[in-house]
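Entry 14. Ran structure prediction on the chain below.
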Amino acid sequence: MIEPFRVELRAEVIDDLRSRLRRTRWPEPSTSAGWVQGTPLGYGRELCRYWSESYDWAAATHRLNRHPQFRAPIDGLMIHFIHVRSPRAGAVPLLMTHGWPGSVVEFAAVIDPLVEAGFHVVCPSLPGYGFSDKPAAPGWTVHRTADAWASLMALLGYERFLAQGHDWGTTISTSLARRHPSRLLGIHLMPPLVAPIVPAETPAEQEALDALTEAASGDGYSFVQSTRPQTIGYGLVDSPAALSTWILEKFHAWTDPASRLSNDALIDNLMLYWLPATGASAARLYWESFAEVQALFRTGTTDTVNVPTGCSVFPHELPRPSRRWAEPRFPDIRYWSEPPRGGHFAAFEQPELFVEEVSACAEALLGSA
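Output, structure tokens:
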């Protein structure tokens, strides 16, 4: 039922990818300086040159297979996941969910430290992402994915577990808490999704409000993916230059400038979109669920989540809710932290700090249970 999985980089796949990169027909430069119109031509060309000419395929194969991977049938799809058990007695099952434009690659540097800290780590690829199957019919919302995750953890023998997530993972972890509360030891959200309570009462709340307003100028990607994922998918699946510039513009926008992600790390993540051709299928989750999720932090919701909750709000994340904003929806917050550095891709950007946050949150959730 559960099948081992390994990422293979066959010679013909590498040759085809390099050929496509070398034959890219590039547009003219932007008429504005910097990133205001999207990924600059110079950055895109250099990244693609590196991918074609300098990316070490053998080393990449080793990195992409550094942890045990599997696929298992869940609700009609084969779901890809990383699963590493801790040798420590009393280890706690920890389910970590990625988002877009990330992948399980984001967790590569934090899995081993978390296992050593006493967690059985499970990192699934979202349906239509990475090496999970692509849904062939509508209906794979964040809530259906939450149900699938509950089934996956049961299949692995974990009756109760902690759920941790960012981006789509935040909403999926929250949905797990609402739909399967008896299964959850607690949830760790980066960040919790809630609407602002205005007027702002602190400078930090006002900064968060201003950041939401400013970020609206970069929302074009979500409008496209939530309304016409098939259309943008043709380019993302066919052109590695289109895929990389589409995705890396968001890494530039959402990463703490103090964080340094190498070309190899960024391309490793791209490979989990390029190899399985998931440009369209990954975008399609926006068509399924983005309007609902965006409303959570723009207009609000009346639901409450009563499972024990921990929250880490990184300084370059968006949105950046205050605890005052979060408490009406999450009345049982037992851990709240605002780390000094890091952005949307915390595990990728600041792995040591991420491990500290997860460990401290788990201690607070389990110690007060």
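The radius of gyration is 20 Å. Will compare against last week's run tomorrow.
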